[in-house]
Write a sequence for this structure.
């Protein structure tokens, strides 16, 4: 049975990716900080006949990450087929550089860039040694362009693109692929809360708030992402269809970045 390690598996897109991989026949390691939410993901997977195991740790913590991955490799028999780095934080929104604190900036880099570096530093050598593996980093379309007021988040995603490309070059001769998925806005609980807050502020209903936000983003297809859209690309890259794709950025945003 192929083995996948998914960070950020406690909610949102990471949870959807973990559940879809389990449905596809992967034994899935669920990585994240919130044990109760990881339990929910594991329960969803088990209810559909899938198999998973929880590894609760803080991806920002170097020692905790090393210990969790060591435990994972013992559990998996030192096999790792797919690594998905989906853990991320958005940080403050619409905050200009002069008002963003260093602590806020560092927090985004720690989770969104340093975290993937730590998991890859432990698991990429294993993949190279077994001459097989797929690393899939979940970035964002803010890593494909700049945006005022999102300097920390955008910087972390641009950095993740660089990490992805360098790792792809290092691992390619062993047949290991490393790619970057760049989603646009995704209809996860955090975004839904933001839309609800906007609706209250503007005196409109939630559906109208979503339509206005979508119009502002300007996707050519006129729609935002669902978590399943990202999971579908992960499954493609993890499978035989992704065997000759590496070092690439795959934008999934309905046509915002064109």
């Amino acid at each position: 049975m192929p083995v996948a390690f998914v960070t950020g598996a406690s909610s949102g897109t990471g949870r959807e990716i973990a559940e879809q991989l389990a449905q596809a026949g992967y034994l899935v390691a669920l990585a994240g900080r919130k044990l109760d939410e990881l339990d929910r993901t594991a329960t969803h997977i088990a209810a559909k006949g899938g198999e998973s195991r929880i590894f609760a740790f803080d991806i920002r913590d170097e020692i905790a990450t090393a210990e969790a991955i060591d435990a994972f490799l013992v559990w998996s028999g030192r096999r790792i087929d797919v690594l998905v780095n989906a853990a991320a934080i958005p940080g403050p929104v619409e905050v200009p550089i002069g008002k963003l604190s260093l602590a806020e900036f560092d927090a985004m880099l720690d989770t969104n860039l340093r975290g993937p570096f730590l998991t890859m530093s432990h698991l990429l050598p294993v993949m190279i040694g077994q001459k097989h593996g797929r690393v899939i980093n979940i970035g964002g379309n803010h890593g494909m362009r700049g945006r005022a007021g999102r300097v920390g988040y955008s910087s972390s995603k641009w950095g993740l693109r660089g990490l992805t490309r360098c790792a792809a070059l290092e691992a390619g001769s062993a047949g290991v692929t490393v790619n970057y998925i760049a989603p646009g806005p995704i209809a996860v609980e955090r975004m839904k809360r933001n839309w609800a807050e906007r609706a209250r502020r503007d005196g409109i209903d939630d559906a109208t708030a979503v339509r206005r936000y979508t119009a502002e983003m300007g996707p050519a297809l006129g729609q935002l992402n669902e978590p399943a859209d990202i999971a579908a690309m992960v499954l493609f890259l993890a499978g035989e269809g992704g065997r000759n794709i590496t070092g690439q950025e795959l934008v999934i945003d309905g046509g915002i970045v064109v």
